[in-house]
Design a protein that fits this description.
By secondary structure, the protein is mainly alpha-helical. The protein is built from nine helices and two strands, in the order H-H-H-H-H-H-E-H-E-H-H.
């Protein structure tokens, strides 16, 4: 779907135009399983009202090759640390468990779930998310940093 949307130059302008409607943005945020405060909602609204940002996000998603990624996962030879948001309805946490099953035993790593947060966890609780990522980085062997 992202590939089709990215091909049409009117789509980013349409999404940006829809961002003028605060209710539409609130619904978009809610559809991710996240809850943002008024400031976070205003910042997110500003972000999605920028046609260049929308175009960039669509182009990024259009470039993903998830089949190739899935095929390459069994080749991963280092631990993979996944952070999932318990309420994420955009990328369900069960997908992380599926990824772990595809990994060889040596590369399994860890799976951390952020309770009560959605897809925008980094915007809902930026400090908590950053601290977790920094902790994982500090714990990573220097050979894989």
């Amino acid at each position: 779907l992202a590939r089709l949307l990215a091909l049409n130059p009117l789509v980013p302008r349409f999404f940006a135009w829809r961002a003028a409607d605060a209710v539409a943005v609130r619904r978009l945020i809610a559809s991710t399983g996240s809850t943002l405060d008024a400031e976070g909602e205003a910042l997110y609204r500003r972000l999605v009202s920028d046609p260049a940002h929308v175009a960039g996000a669509l182009a990024m998603m259009a470039g993903w090759d998830l089949d190739a990624l899935q095929a390459a996962l069994p080749l991963l030879s280092v631990p993979l640390h996944q952070v999932v948001a318990e309420c994420d309805s955009t990328v369900p946490p069960r997908d992380a468990q599926r990824v772990q099953r595809l990994l060889p035993a040596a590369a399994r790593g860890s799976l951390t779930s952020l309770a009560g947060l959605g897809h925008l966890a980094h915007e809902e609780r930026p400090r908590q998310t950053a601290e977790l990522l920094l902790q994982l980085l500090r714990e990573a062997p220097t050979s894989v940093r």
